[in-house]
Write a structure and sequence with these properties.
Elements lengths: L11 H4 L14 E3 L7 E7 L15 E9 L3 H12 L6 E3 L8 E9 L12 E9 L8 E9 L1 E3 L3 H15 L13 E10 L14 H9 L3 H9 L8 H14 L1 E2 L11 E2 L7 H7 L5 H13 L10 H7 L4 H26 L11 E5 L10 E8 L5 H9 L3 E7 L9 H14 L17 E4 L1 E11 L2 E9 L4 H9 L7
Parallel strand pairs: 2-5
Antiparallel strand pairs: 1-8, 2-7, 3-5, 3-6, 4-5, 7-17, 9-16, 10-11, 12-13, 12-14, 14-15, 16-17
Helix pairs in contact: 4-5, 4-10, 5-9, 6-7, 7-8, 8-9, 10-12
Organism: Halorubrum distributum JCM 13916
EC number: 5.4.99.27
Enzyme class: isomerase
Length: 491
């Protein structure tokens, strides 16, 4: 067993979603992200080919667009675009969802329209690229290139950035010293951090999606509905908190009998079941919560109905299918974060395997600037092959993985497998639990534990600007947190 390490502890908000530590012990530079949208630029690294614009629409019904959006949430822009075109929102597709407070460049496909029909939309530059026979999906995004300025960093930021890069370069297994800065370039180095799922995955102000997902995996849809529609957070507005308190009263809440993953109250079925009163209390802005409670009211569900009763599943399925999947994905992500944190605490390497690890190989079709894993190509590492596979990892040809647990997930052996099983046991779930109804079902997969990138840092007026590229599914904030050392809500 590897020796346990003393590490710098993460912010409490992060620890609630399984992010327990920092890799770098360097002091933070502080600062803020997204002081203006131009401070956070994201450009998709595309993996999607289009036919010419004059291709036959009958064979190629999808118009392919590249849009540069300023201060637009991806979902909101898709809704605005479909409204302007007078079509269903379901005819607009994209490969990756981006944050609002940013300048983002990404692809969209729109079914059944021509380039001459495109509207003008405030804050959006839209270019028609061509046509396609299918709509965009998640697999059509190789990754994202970022340029991010941290505003109002501390005066000592240059030295602190350099100290952090030294730690992150060692963590990535890069023994090369960074070159001396030339001109405005402070640092060019290959760095690595744990490939955590960022706070956005779980909700920054109310991290609850993983708790809902864990309740679903435990076959407790009653508690899943209660956690989503009730369960107030201190960071929410007063009217929202009051509405969630009313929902908790309708369910009945047993204080202090929460699950092992959090010290929370849980539904106990002793509430008044006054769903009509809940609907009066829930503001219209909580439309998904209202949809769930509407279904309870329509069926007159007794709060004391069995936790896995079909009526609770019916209420849970009131939300869109993508949110249903997100609940389960967030539970998987939370367990992954906890596995990664425990691996870090025990001092197991991230840049190379130990006996019992499962590795994946590199994606040979990924853009040159990405260190991209292909988790469809997995291999177990026994003691006899550790040295050989380590050399593959050193050359960027292989990556150590941890599970995103599902029905077909095979856990590791040795100490890595011991960690994986202990985390699942503590969460009260096992792979077979993800055989779930409808959109909640998940086969699972594995994910690289190390996030490696080539980082450039420049300074503008004393504030650092970070430039790097990450494979799809990885989070820029997971890298930046190592430099800022601030909580998610403080950025």
């Amino acid at each position: 067993m590897a020796p346990e390490r003393t590490l710098r502890e993460a912010h409490p908000t992060e620890r609630a979603v399984g992010i327990e530590y920092y890799v770098s012990d360097a002091d933070g530079i502080g600062g803020r992200l997204r002081e203006s949208p131009e401070d956070f630029r994201v450009r998709e690294l595309e993996a999607f080919d289009a036919e010419p614009l004059d291709a036959e629409p009958g064979s190629y019904p999808e118009l392919v667009l590249r849009a540069t959006l300023r201060d637009w949430d991806t979902n909101d822009f898709a809704r605005r675009l479909s409204d302007a075109l007078g079509i269903s929102r379901e005819r607009v597709s994209w490969a990756g969802t981006k944050d609002k407070r940013a300048v983002t460049t990404q692809l969209f496909t729109v079914r059944g329209i021509g380039a001459d029909e495109l509207p003008e939309i405030r804050g959006a530059e839209i270019e028609a690229l061509g046509r396609s026979g299918r709509s965009l999906s998640f697999g059509d995004l190789a990754g994202n290139a970022f340029e991010i300025r941290v505003a109002d960093a501390v005066e000592e930021a240059p030295d602190r950035v350099a100290d952090a890069v030294r730690d992150l370069r060692a963590f990535a297994g890069d023994g090369e010293a960074p070159p001396d800065g030339e001109g405005d370039v402070l640092i060019e180095a290959t760095v690595g951090v744990p490939n955590y799922f960022g706070q956005q995955r779980f909700g920054s102000r109310r991290p609850v999606t993983h708790l809902v997902g864990l309740a679903i995996a435990r076959k407790d849809p009653r508690e899943a509905v209660r956690l989503y529609a009730g369960n107030p957070a201190e960071t929410e507005p007063d009217d929202t908190r009051a509405a969630r308190d009313r929902v908790d009263a309708a369910f009945g809440v047993d204080e202090g009998s929460g699950s092992d993953d959090a010290d929370r109250a849980a539904a106990d079925g002793t509430g008044d079941g006054d769903w009509a009163a809940c609907l009066e209390a829930i503001p219209g802005k909580l439309r998904f919560e209202r949809s769930m409670v509407h279904r309870l009211a329509d069926r007159g569900v007794d709060p004391d109905a069995p936790p896995d009763d079909e009526d609770w599943w019916h209420a849970l399925e009131a939300v869109p299918s993508n949110l249903q999947r997100l609940f389960v994905n967030a539970a998987q992500s939370y367990c992954f974060n906890r596995v990664v944190s425990e691996r870090l605490r025990r001092g197991l390497p991230f840049d190379r395997p130990v006996a019992g690890d499962v590795v994946c190989f590199a994606d040979g079709d990924a853009p040159e600037e990405l260190y991209a894993p292909d988790t469809d190509r997995l291999q177990r590492v026994d003691a006899d092959r550790v040295d050989v596979v380590s050399r593959h990892c050193e050359r960027g040809r292989a990556f150590v993985t941890a599970p995103l647990v599902g029905t077909e997930t095979e856990l590791g052996d040795g100490e890595p497998g011991e960690i994986e099983r202990a985390v699942l046991d503590d969460a009260g779930i096992e792979p077979a639990d993800f055989a779930l109804p409808g959109e909640f079902d998940s086969k699972g997969t594995r994910r690289a534990v190390l996030l490696r990138t080539d980082l450039d840092v420049t300074f503008e007026g004393g504030d650092p600007r970070f430039a790097f590229a990450l494979p799809s599914g990885s989070y820029a904030t997971v890298l930046l947190r190592e430099f800022t050392k601030r909580g998610p809500l403080d950025l």
